[in-house]
Design a protein that fits this description.
By secondary structure, the chain is of the alpha/beta class. The protein has three domains: 206 residues, FAD/NAD(P)-binding domain (3-Layer(bba) Sandwich), CATH 3.50.50; 106 residues, FAD/NAD(P)-binding domain; 109 residues, 2-Layer Sandwich (Enolase-like, domain 1), CATH 3.30.390. It has 14 helices and 21 strands. Helix 3 packs across helix 6. The protein starts with a strand and ends with a helix. The model has no long low-confidence stretch (mean pLDDT 97). The site of nicotinamide-adenine-dinucleotide (NAD) has 24 residues, from helix 6 and strand 17.
């Protein structure tokens, strides 16, 4: 049996696992980094998630600009616009390779890498596939998550795509893409493919797309429906392959219907990479959905083992896992910080774009909060008109009396960027709306919309 190699810190996962590894190395500690995809270091974000998908969406934005050029008096022969799908994917794939290679160089210069799957074989004892064994004073589990594949009969034969196969394997632009799941991934890919000329059908359980504030998801659903066919309140019963096409039989309120296209993309959520990790052998508990149980300091049920990122299933965002990684590292080394997701923002990079932080109006109601709400449209102010009065608005929820910002939601151009002054305001003592209301904003900018909606709650 191989001797046990000992480290101050072991990180499982070469995505956000790198955050704890970075802080440990900076503190002069010995660090082992365990990852099973050495050619995809940087994890989901760099290789299969945020960065490559936003690269694709950049191409979609260029197409939308071209399509709407006429609104600004720029006339193009639209019939001459040609999409080189391979070139679009090629750009993203080359950047991914370079990014992953750069992360790998850093990993190999800063830490001791262990490539391959690792699993626990005893208390804090990890064994690699090749038999090497290692342990750490502190262990960080950042093993991430992967696409959840729903148990629909016939799915395996349908040749379905996931976010991973779009990035790595897709060779031809689908003519008609069926997307199962109208959440983040479904709506971002619906934007990308439809902007590039693919006919897209999105199928989802719920009556509206995305899990946003009700006003935001209503407008989003209405706008996406102008470019994409929506089959909502639908239950997928069976996957089909017929005459070279694939698709689903779905049950809707109007009965059963068959939706066929040339490719099927699954975007039905994520499942944690905890199966096969042997966590029971080291006293780390999982919840009923397989996510690692942590306390508010991100410590697992083992005193020396911390977990963060998608594997704990709190808010599956890169910025959230980076925040958690730093906090977990410090807590593992003497700090007593509690995670605080009050001002944890998110964005949906679809069209219209969405940026959001804090509570939705429904959550404010459910929590019995006494609030004022204000809403202002892009079309109502100077820069909004300049950019073409796009559909969209900013919506603010402020607690009555205290002036505390409860939630802020934007849908429309640059929403993902524009929410950040509210994030900062929410992180100042008292989270008072007056921080934004009383700040001078450059005229004419989209940021003025943010200030104007704050003015309306004075
Ligand atoms: C299509 C898509 C788009 C996204 N877009 C955004 C976005 O725009 N903005 C945003 O904030 N977030 C986005 N996300 C979410 C974001 O990518 C994730 O929240 C984040 O990357 C999670 O990081 P992580 O470290 O928890 O997991 P990962 O990055 O998945 O890292 C886990 C690593 O651990 C490895 N591993 C797992 N088990 C083992 C084992 N037993 N042994 C060895 N190695 C193991 C995995 O192979 C992987 O490399 C997106 C996600 C997807 C899928
Ligand atoms: N911009 C971003 O930050 C970004 C982008 C992409 C992904 N992500 C992260 O990745 C995670 C996963 O994204 P996702 O879109 O796969 O999950 P999601 O939870 O956002 O959406 C899944 C959707 O699929 C639907 N669904 C699930 N099973 C279904 C079924 N059998 N039939 C019909 N509909 C079904 C659900 O109703 C839901 O609307 C997100 O939660 C998010 O944290 C973030």
């Amino acid at each position: 049996m191989a001797a046990i190699e000992r480290y101050d810190v072991v990180c499982i996962g070469g995505g956000s696992g790198l955050t704890a590894a970075y802080y440990a190395q900076r503190d002069g500690k010995s660090v082992a980094l365990v990852d099973d995809r050495p050619d995809q270091l940087g994890g989901t974000c760099v290789n299969r998630g945020c960065i490559p998908t936003k690269g694709l969406i950049q191409a979609a934005e260029v197409m939308q600009t071209i399509r709407h050029a006429g609104d600004f008096g720029i006339h193009l022969d639209q019939s001459s616009v040609r999409v080189d799908f391979q070139a679009v994917l090629g750009t993203v794939r080359r950047r991914r390779e370079n990014d992953a290679a750069a992360v790998r160089r850093w990993v190999e210069s800063a830490f001791t890498p262990y490539y391959g799957r690792g699993h626990f074989v005893g208390d804090k004892l990890i064994e690699m596939e090749d038999g090497r064994r290692l342990t750490g004073e502190r262990i960080f589990i950042a093993a991430g998550a992967r696409p959840a594949i729903p148990p629909i009969p016939g799915l395996a034969e349908s040749g379905f795509l996931t976010n991973e196969s779009v990035i790595f394997d897709l060779t031809e632009q689908p003519e008609h893409l069926i997307i199962l799941g109208g959440g983040y991934i479904g709506c971002e890919f619906a934007h990308f493919f439809s902007a590039l000329g693919t006919r897209v059908t999105v199928i989802d359980h719920s009556e509206c797309l995305l899990a946003e504030d009700d006003d935001v998801r209503a407008l989003f659903t209405q706008e996406l429906a102008k470019r994409v066919e929506l089959v909502l309140q639908a239950e997928a019963r069976q996957a089909l392959v017929r005459d070279g096409q694939c698709g689903l039989v779905v049950a809707t309120g109007d009965g059963e219907r068959t939706v066929l296209g040339d490719r099927l993309l699954l975007a039905t959520g994520r499942r944690p990479n905890t199966d096969g990790l042997g966590l029971e052998r080291t006293g780390v508990e999982l919840n009923d959905r397989g996510f690692v149980v942590v306390d508010d300091g991100l410590r697992t049920t083992h005193p020396d083992i911390y977990a963060y990122g998608d594997v704990i299933g709190q808010g599956m965002f890169k910025h959230t896992s980076s925040y958690e990684g730093e906090l977990a590292y410090h807590n593992a080394h003497g700090a007593t910080l509690a995670v605080d997701y009050t001002a944890n923002p998110h964005a949906v990079f679809s069209s219209p774009q969405i940026g959001s932080v804090g509570l939705t109006e429904r959550a404010c109601r459910d929590q019995g909060l006494d609030y004022v709400v204000a809403r202002k449209d892009y079309a109502d102010f100077a820069k909004g008109k300049i950019v073409g009065s796009p559909p969209g608005f900013a919506k603010l929820l402020v607690e009555k009396g205290s002036d505390r910002i409860l939630g802020f939601h934007m849908i429309g151009p640059q929403a993902a960027d524009l929410i950040h002054e509210v994030v900062v305001a929410m992180n100042t003592p008292g989270a008072k709306a007056e921080r934004v209301r009383d700040s001078i904003h450059v005229h004419p900018t989209l940021a003025e919309l943010v200030r104007q909606v704050f003015d309306d709650t004075a």
